[in-house]
Amino acid sequence: MNELSNIKVVGTVEAVRDFVKACRKEGKSVGLVPTMGYLHEGHESLIKKSVAENDVTVVSIFVNPMQFGPKEDLASYPRDLEADTKLCENAGANLIFHPEPSEMYHDDFASYVDVNGLTNALCGLSRPGHFRGVCTVVTKLFNIVTPDRAYFGEKDAQQLAVIKRMVADLNMDIKIVGCPIIREEDGLAKSSRNTYLSPMSRNESLIISKSIFMGKKMIEDGERSAAKVIQAIKDNINTSAIMDIDYVEIVNGLTMESIEEIKGDILCAVAVRVNGDARLIDNFMMTVE
Ligand code: AMP
């Protein structure tokens, strides 16, 4: 436990349970913000919303090995617990849960949570096993912290939809709160992975948010063909030589199924590899009459 600051940093499940038990005895409500750390204003907005809506806020900081593929950036994922602790404390959080992988996954670990259907699209297709890792760790965090509410960003729109489905299907008594995407002033969605970008790549990455805003405008102006909007976004992103599109899709916002005609609750999501440095995602959601 870090005694130097007002916020407590603990690494064991037992310490979290003791903390939450004491809060419950005083009748306090508990909010949870699950993160992988290297926190920025996007995470901060989730923490502040939790602080506003709950008596106590727990932030988990855990780079979850199970949600990374064998060729992904688990080892190089940025980490800075000291800066994260300051951000959490300033935002009003009360406890950081920062476990070692061995605390979360014992050698004989054998249980997984799979959400089907919604995960057969977008990042679920490009990152096999990713959502199994996410759903398993989030279920564990829910069981450890037993929060009243848990906060997730719309930045990871498919993740938010998958978690909502999981909570409904498995009767988890937790309210899932979605929070809007926080962007840099110039429009780039904030991400811990933006740190991988060289200044040149960072500059060119603006094409991603610009392209999806352009797609959104096409829909606002009346375009209803998903294929046309997708193609326009792809063409725009491809004007940069260092963008390697993973996917550009328009799907039903609940089921994540591809749609031809844009109507109802839709999600337009993109994933792009930038100069081999980073895989960035961005999206917009819309309700179209
Ligand atoms: P991560 O640490 O990347 O796993 O993200 C932890 C949580 O913060 C997830 O629910 C993300 O969707 C959310 N988040 C990350 N970046 C942003 C952002 N730019 N705006 C809003 N939420 C975000």
Low-pLDDT runs of 5+ residues are none
Q: What is the 3D form?
A: globular
Total number of helices: 10
Main β sheet profile:
6 strands, parallel
What structural category characterises the helix and strand content? alpha/beta
Sequence of strands across the biggest β-sheet: 1-4-3-2-5-6
- Mean pLDDT rating: 97
Cα(first) to Cα(last) distance is 52 Å
Strand share of the residues? Answer: 15-25%
Condensed summary:
By secondary structure, the chain is α/β, with parallel strands linked by helices.
Pick out its properties.
289 residues; alpha/beta; Rossmann fold; Pantoate--beta-alanine Ligase, Chain: A,domain 2; 6-stranded parallel sheet; 37% helix; binds adenosine monophosphate
SSE map:
Layout: E1 8-10, H1 13-25, E2 30-35, H2 41-53, E3 56-61, H3 81-91, E4 95-97, H4 101-104, H5 122-126, H6 130-145, E5 149-153, H7 157-169, E6 175-179, H8 199-204, H9 206-220, H10 226-237, E7 243-252, E8 264-274, E9 278-288
Helix pairs in contact: 6-7, 9-10
The protein binds adenosine monophosphate.
